[in-house]
Amino acid sequence: MAELREKWSLKGTTALVTGGSKGIGYAIVEELANFGARVYTCSRNENELQECLDIWRKKGLKVEGSVCDLLSRTEREKLMKTIEDVFDGKLNILVNNAGVAIHKEAKDFTKQDYNIIMGTNFEAAYHLSQIAYPLLKASQNGNVIFVSSIAGFSALPSLSLYSASKGAINQMTKNLACEWAKDNIRVNSVAPAVILTPQIETAIKV
């Protein structure tokens, strides 16, 4: 890894990673920071976030963060205003990582379930990408990464809404990649299989 870092560096770049206090998001934050990027992250849980920030600071990593409920449009806009101020109007990397899964049969999902899953997994990612667009364009080297899932391509049991949200993410990735290429903004999605994170561990216990 040390040899790789000598060949590849993100020094001088800025990144926003949503849901960075645990799981995949935590690993992404740490990896980007280890390669020299200035990273900002957010979480709904203030205690978890502060614990993570303390760990990263002790490691000498340049990571900042704040509390944000991504289901709230107002809080998303506030987050992006903070990013604009902290990073002087330019953002190189946006990682739409935050996500939630609720395991139920399709016939049992409620309106609240729908709002939580689609609001967190799709609406928040779409809106953040929209309002980050001026900052990404200003960087002249913008990158948007959506954390999708194999559930967006394959039918998995008890995950119909989650799968729908990730399928929407996959299609949005294609559209934004075409629309924003002229602005030097690359748009990609990553579709992992099952990764043992706190979210998965909770689902297994249930």
Automatic annotation (TrEMBL):
InterPro entries: NAD(P)-bd_dom_sf, Sc_DH/Rdtase_CS, SDR_fam, TR. GO terms for molecular function: oxidoreductase activity, acting on the CH-OH group of donors, NAD or NADP as acceptor. Pfam families: adh_short (PF00106). It comes from the Eukaryota. Keywords: NADP, Oxidoreductase. Belongs to the short-chain dehydrogenases/reductases (SDR) family. PANTHER family: TROPINONE REDUCTASE (PTHR42898), TROPINONE REDUCTASE 1-LIKE (PTHR42898:SF91). This is Tropinone reductase I. It comes from Solanum tuberosum.
